[in-house]
Structure formats: C-alpha cells, structure tokens
Amino acid sequence: MAGMDDGSILDRSGKPYKPSATRAYSQTLRSYVLPTLGSRRLDEVHRADIQDLVEGLRRRGLAPSTIHNVLDPLRVLFRRAVRRDEVLIDPTRGLELPAVRGQRDRIESPENARKLLEALPDDERALWTVAMFAGLRRGELLALRWVDIDFDGGVIRVERGWDMYAGEIAAKSKAGVRAVPMAFPVHRELRELKRRSRRDGDDLVFGRTSRDPFFPSTVRARAMKAWKAAGVDPITLHEARHCAVSFFIASGLDLKQVSTWAGHSDIRTTLNRYGHVIPGSERDAADRLTAYLAGPTVARTVAHPGDSAESPAVAGLDEYRYRDSNPGFRRERAAS
Fold first, then answer.
1. Are 42 and 55 in contact (CB under 8 A)?
2. Does 182 lie in the same domain as 124?
3. Residues 131 and 225 in one domain
4. pLDDT, tens digit, for every residue of 44-95?
5. Secondary structure (3-state) at 290
C-alpha cells in the first residue's frame, strides 16, 4: 500500500493510483481481509482460503457488490506478486462469486429536473445546474475555477479534480480533461453566480471561499432542506450527473461526443452506464418512429418560426417538412 501511496506502484493502465482508491483499498483490507488472512504470507494464501473468505462475507449478509469490492485490493496484490515471481498462481482467479444484480441509476425527466432546480435557493442553484445539465463529477465541481468557464465559447473546461484529503489532483483520466458544452440554463446560472460572488480567474467557482472548496455534506443538507419544503424527491450530485449524460443521449447528440463530454475513455462505458430511457420519453420515441416509418412527408408539429424569439410552445403550430429520413429528424419550414 505504501507503494500505491507514493506513486511507485502503478495501476493496470500505468498511472498512479488516485488517493481515494488507495484509501478505499486500505480500509477494505483492514475491515475484511486482515482479520482473516493478515497473519499469512502471500505464498501461503490459496484459492480455497479466499473462497472461504467470500463465503464468510456472504454469511455476514454483505451485498454481492461489496464482496466484489473486497476482492479488488487482493487482486492488485496478487497480480503484482505474480509479475514479480513471488507467487506462481493468482488465487483470486477462478472463484465462485455471487452475481451482482445491476441497478438502474435514477434518471429524472427534464421537467422534474427543472422542478428540482427551481426549488433551490439562488446561491445553491448554479452548482446543481452544472451537475444536472453538464454532468461534471463531484471532484470536478469542487476543483472548478472561473478561468475554466468560457462564456464566449460556451464551454466548461474540465482540467482537474479534487480529493477531500489530498486537495487538488489531476483529472480522473486522460479522457477526464475535456470541454463540456454549456446549455442555456448552465450559462445563465453561472453568469448570475459570477455576478453575485464577484470572483474571477483562479478563484473556485463553488468554493465556500475563493480558495476553499465546498463541503459536499453541507451542500447536500441545504438542498435536502429546500426539496423537502417544496415536496420534491431529493437527488444526489452523482445522480444529477447520470441525468445530464442521459439528457445528452436522449436529445440525439452524437454518442462519441457524449462519451467525450462525460469524460469516458470508452464509448461502451457511456452506453452501458448512461444509456437509459428517460421516464416519459416513450411517447416521444413512438412519435419519432412513426414519422420515420412514414418517410420524408410533410407533417404537422409544434413550430418555431425563424424570426421568433418565443419557444415553440408559445409560437403555436406551423408546417414543417422532414428534410430527410435521418433519425435525428432535422426539419425545415415548409414553403408557404
């Protein structure tokens, strides 16, 4: 563990372990592994010993996902031991493990997302708006500085993360360094926050001071109080990120771009983790499929005249023609 802490031992991708990962591994070893196997050398630990550990954890009622997490630091230790010829066989391989039942992450509809944001006090709304509509991770929100906000370019530049013990750290991965587009609500709330806070440059955007990051527990408590008063179901920052990436996907944006904006190294991560159907979108999907099957015909829909600043709902009905049968449903106004 000392080598993981000082950076001399690297992860499977050849990068130093994050401080949060080394802390989690240390805590897991102390809580679950060392009481049973701590007195043995690595070459004295066999597959049956680890299988017994797994079955003991199951009898204690630990969730399958927790049991898999318990094995993670053991896998790291034995993988390194095999490479260094300290053991011949990795005893963490070939185990009988409980299946992890995947749980869907909570995804709100855009309407419910707006209700959650509207219930918050003005000083709290910008943080949750960026999480909900730009999809930054909690550590990225903690480390965000005003120099990273490009209002003219309409993007948030994610350059770093934050560890609550180690302070400012590098981004989670190479893919974590990215530029995320700002939807209008994000742009508006950040503009207003900057005006109120009078911060700029290297000042933290959401810090409790210009140099000290916010306390996630405090931010959560204030939001919970507001949502309880408004009678809406609360959400976490992590769940808000899930919503953002799913909004990107549901709005028909290019999946490779969505993966980049989410900070994922592999597009499969984006699809597997965030490609959920947003509640209430089935009717819209049915309408889009019907229009696609009907071919490039003239259709009636809610229109947004080009010379109008009003939303489509306010502007009323007009005729649109489908330019082609692209599933993205690009439309142009029909010639009158």
1. no
2. yes
3. yes
4. 999 999 999 999 999 999 999 999 999 999 999 999 999 999 999 999 999 9
5. helix
How does 260-269 read in b/e, with b if 16+ C-beta sit within 10 Å? bbbbbeeeee
How many CA atoms does the CB half-sphere of 194 hold within 13 Å? 18
Please say if the pLDDT value at position 312 is more than 70: no
In percent, how much of the chain has pLDDT > 90?
Answer: 60
Q: Are residues 224 and 130 in the same domain?
A: yes
Is residue 287 located within the same domain as residue 254?
no
Of 126, 140, 145, 137, the closest CA to residue 211 belongs to 145
Report how far apart, in Å, the C-alpha atoms of 217 and of each of 107, 242, 293, 335 are. 22, 19, 50, 56
Q: Does the residue 100 lie in any domain?
A: no
Query: DSSP alpha helices (H): ranges in the chain?
Result: 2-6, 19-28, 34-37, 47-59, 64-83, 110-118, 122-134, 138-143, 184-197, 216-230, 237-250, 255-262, 267-274, 282-294, 312-315
Question: What tens digit of pLDDT does each residue of 229-278 get?
Answer: 999 999 999 999 999 998 998 888 888 999 999 999 888 888 777 655 55
Q: What is the per-residue pLDDT across 196-207, written as a single tens digit (0 to 9) for each?
A: 999 999 999 999
Cα–Cα dist 95/204, whole Å:
47
Last residue of a domain, one of 223, 244, 274: 274
Structural element, H or E, at residue 170: strand 167-170
Residues in the chain: 336
Same domain, residue pair 236 and 307:
no
Please check whether residues 32 and 163 belong to one and the same domain.
Answer: no
Based on the fold, state whether residues 177 and 267 are members of the same structural domain. Answer: yes
CATH of the domain at 129: 1.10.443.10
Q: Quote the pLDDT of residue 313.
A: 47
How confident is the model over 17-30, as pLDDT tens digits? 888 888 889 999 99
In a domain, 237, yes or no: yes
Count of the separate structural domains present in the chain? 3
Identify the domain containing residue 240 by its residue range: 110-274
Assign 225 to helix, strand or coil.
helix
Asked if residue 134 and residue 208 are part of one domain, the reply reads yes
- For 24, the token pair is 């989690």
Distance CA 126, CA 134 (A): 11
